[in-house]
Write a structure and sequence with these properties.
Structural class: mainly alpha
Shape: elongated
Radius of gyration: 26 Å
Largest sheet: none
């Protein structure tokens, strides 16, 4: 985007003052010569992980909490009605722990190696 000084002053008067004044300049007196790739040294298996309805159900303590999660996800159309019904049936027949062991506090921190 190209903008002339006059337009810049009119649209962004404070930024124009800072640019012309030079008071906010920072000198750079060093350069990092080696690149440090954090992702290669600390692979994060949860990077871009998006929890599923089962992940949320595994945090529940009671069947009532699980039913509320299922209803919420169904209402927001994050799970289809037939999936919600199948989850409800499993919940009724097999119980809350049929979805897997409970995910305790800091579960994702521990799994991600941050704790």
């Amino acid at each position: 985007m190209v903008i002339d000084k006059r337009s810049l002053k009119k649209l962004f008067p404070n930024i124009a003052k800072e640019l012309e004044g030079g008071a906010a300049k920072i000198s750079i007196d060093s350069v990092q010569s080696e690149t440090y790739d954090y992702e290669q040294t600390h692979p994060d298996k949860l990077f871009n992980y998006n929890p599923t309805v089962v992940d949320f159900l595994r945090r529940c303590d009671t069947e009532m909490q699980a039913e509320a999660i299922i209803a919420f996800m169904e209402e927001r159309r994050e799970i289809p009605t037939n999936c919600a019904e199948a989850l409800r049936q499993q919940l009724k027949r097999k119980g809350i722990r049929s979805f897997g062991p409970k995910k305790e506090d800091d579960y994702y921190f521990r799994e991600g190696g941050l704790c």
